[in-house]
UniProtKB/TrEMBL annotation:
Coiled-coil regions listed: none
Catalyzed reactions: Endonucleolytic cleavage of RNA, removing extra 3' nucleotides from tRNA precursor, generating 3' termini of tRNAs. A 3'-hydroxy group is left at the tRNA terminus and a 5'-phosphoryl group is left at the trailer molecule
Example GO BP: mitochondrial tRNA 3'-end processing
GO molecular function terms listed in the Swiss-Prot or TrEMBL record: 3'-tRNA processing endoribonuclease activity; metal ion binding
Any one cellular-component term (Gene Ontology): mitochondrion
Family statement drawn from the similarity comment of this UniProt entry: Belongs to the RNase Z family.
Keyword match Ion transport: no
Necessary cofactors: Zn(2+)
Segments passing through the bilayer: none
Entry keywords, A to Z: Endonuclease, Hydrolase, Metal-binding, Nuclease, tRNA processing, Zinc
This protein's name: ribonuclease Z
Length: 227
């Protein structure tokens, strides 16, 4: 598995992942090995419709699955400055406004204190020396973290990089088997093999494994999918 971590300016810039300079970390559980392609003609294969012989891909021991996971994290961003909010808190505009200015013009004229708030600086006004934090006069766009597993087995590396993600999309190709056993006075839930063996054989995850990754990563939302 590869972990690709990028920090685009906005969440909508996910398409720029391929052109970014990501940090690539190889999963310790899945070695990167070359896939050998045999370009020799397969004499036993029938000719294609174009008349040329077909080619085959060699099944060699050097072929290993490669999975790519994406972690997209946007920083906390300052949004629009709310001048009316600042004025309601007692922050003066600081300038005299001519009476012939219309209402729209007045709302765009600000003094030095509003300018500081606009730049993200806190200000102190004369009303009992009260402090007005800039965060109270601005829309704040919170950080957002999105994790996408790709085809993979459960990975501690993914758990670490997807820590506290808002959304984790994890593959769940195979079903596990979560069995509830009644044993008075306890009710025990036991995870039996189910399709675990098949999942390990084909380097995929079961539903329970995918959910466990999300729980360990403390993801707010977990979406299971099958590729």
């Amino acid at each position: 598995m590869f972990m690709v971590r990028v920090r685009p300016a906005f969440a909508m810039e996910v398409q720029d992942l391929t052109t970014a300079s990501p940090k690539v970390v190889q999963n310790e559980s899945m070695a990167l090995q070359p896939v050998v392609v045999d370009d020799a003609v397969d004499e036993a294969a029938p000719a294609t419709t174009s008349g040329s012989p077909t080619h085959k891909r060699a099944k060699t021991s050097t072929a290993a699955p490669i999975s790519v996971s994406y972690i997209v994290e946007t920083p906390t961003q300052r949004g629009k400055f709310l001048i009316q909010k600042a004025l309601a808190l007692g922050v003066p505009k600081g300038w005299c406004v001519c009476p012939f200015f219309n209402r729209k013009d007045k709302s765009t004229i600000t003094g030095p204190l509003c300018g500081k708030l606009h730049r993200g600086e806190d200000v102190v006004i004369d009303v009992n020396g009260a402090s007005v934090p800039a965060t109270r006069c601005r829309l704040i766009v919170s950080r957002y973290k999105f994790a996408f597993s790709g085809d993979c087995r459960p990975s501690q590396l993914l758990v670490e990089h997807a820590k506290d993600a808002d959304v984790l999309i994890h593959e769940a190709t195979f079903e596990g088997a979560l069995v509830t056993i009644w044993y008075a006075p306890l009710r025990l839930k036991v995870l039996v093999d189910g399709m675990m063996g098949e999942a390990k054989k084909k380097d995929h995850s079961t539903t329970e494994e995918a959910i466990d990754v999300g729980i360990r990563a403390n993801a707010k939302h977990i979406i299971l999918t099958h590729f």
